[in-house]
Amino acid sequence: MTEAETLLNENQRLQARLAELEAETREEQQRLQARIDELEARSQTADPLMTQSESLRETPPPPALRDVKIDLPPEFDGKTAEYAAFIGQCEFYFDNKPSIFLGNDKNKVSLVISRLRGRAATWAHTLRRAEPNNSMFTSWPLFYAELNSLYEDPYYMEQMRREYDALEQKGSARTFAAEFKALAMTLHKGDADKIHDFKRKLKSNVRTGLTIATITDFDTLVAKAIELDQALFEDAKARKKAEQSQKSGPPSSSTSHPQQPRNNPPPQGPRNRPPSQNPSSSKNSSSSISGPRPHLTAEEKNRREALHLCRFCGSNEHFKKDCPDLQAKLEREHKGSSRYPAPASTSNVNAPTAPAPSVAISHTISPSSSGKFNPQGQ
Q: What counts of helices (H) and strands (E) characterise the chain?
């Protein structure tokens, strides 16, 4: 069939539809005229005031038309894949602007032409300049038919059928139901086909749960499937959480009760010791402390010197040169140091001056034959 024949058939179909609308209009006019005649006959025999109030009560004034504030339809540049969405948006816009487009085909055509771009706009404006009195510009059905012949995808329904056949529930039943309803409505599927195909395309666990009940209403079937799918999802999530909890086991004591860092107590002297603590206990406690000693402040050093205390451990039983804690510290350092460690100073300003002990030479140092000093004298 050629394009001219297609347009001719479409024109004949539109003319037939126009004739049907005219016939319906004539019938409506006859019905209204009969109603008017009836009211006039009643008005001649009844009280004029009663008749007027009754007529006002029976025929209320029509409600005022109000437009909805919505965005304009998207622009269309002639892409076949976008035509269906574009024309659908235009019709939706017409329905929500009744004061502008209700019964006014010219306004509909003008709006659609204003949203055309690219090749589509070139076609419309070229035709308008060439044939300004063309009936398409004042008749929305004719202009709509011309747009369909130019931009409607001839394989659109075939594509919708392929998508319908390939559709299956992969995510939630709610999302699947929305996609299924849109495709089924486009393909004009009946309720029996929708119920059969919808159950067949559900997940196996959801489909199994729905076989126990016979559902003959499609909307009820969709609601039950969504409810069952949500319940199965919540149950699976709870089981997974329980399995993870069993695998991880009870929390360890180290994680549930973390150890608090231990702060070293500040050095105590006779002024700030508790009453029950004596110097000997202070000595024992100081020697039992492990780890590095805290750095003494200048005030603490002056206090120990003024009270004649050991400048190392703070005890009043000895001075620094006789401090057992200091001797133990030196021995530990001696074991981990070199062969000839440097002697630590044990001077104390409170200790009496004593002559330096004599040093016995246990070996001599003599040069070796190689010219180097031999500490053993060999």
A: 16, 2
Strand-pair category, 366-367 with 373-374 = antiparallel
173, 147: one domain: no
**pLDDT tens-digit profile of 95-137?**
999 888 988 999 999 999 999 999 999 999 999 999 989 999 9
Number of domains making up the chain: 4
In Å, how far are 27, 92, 158, 278, 306 from 274, measured between CA atoms?
Answer: 114, 90, 96, 8, 20
Residue 32 in domain: yes
The rounded distance, in Å, linking the Cα atoms of 326 and 88 is 95
| Per-residue pLDDT reduced to its tens digit, 176-231 | 999 999 999 989 999 899 999 999 999 988 888 887 567 788 999 999 999 999 99
Please name the residues in contact with 202: beta carbons below 8 A apart, sequence gap of 6 or more: 169, 173, 176, 210, 225
Give the separation between CA 181 and CA 198, rounded to whole angstroms. Answer: 9
The Cα 146–Cα 77 span in angstroms is 16
3-state helix, strand, coil in the chain (%, to 5): 60, 0, 40
Predicted confidence band at 351 (pLDDT cuts at 50, 70, 90)?
very low
Q: Three-class SS of residue 76? A: strand
Same domain, 175 and 233: yes
Backbone torsion region of residue 337, taken as left when φ is above 0, otherwise alpha when ψ lies between -120 and 50, otherwise beta? beta
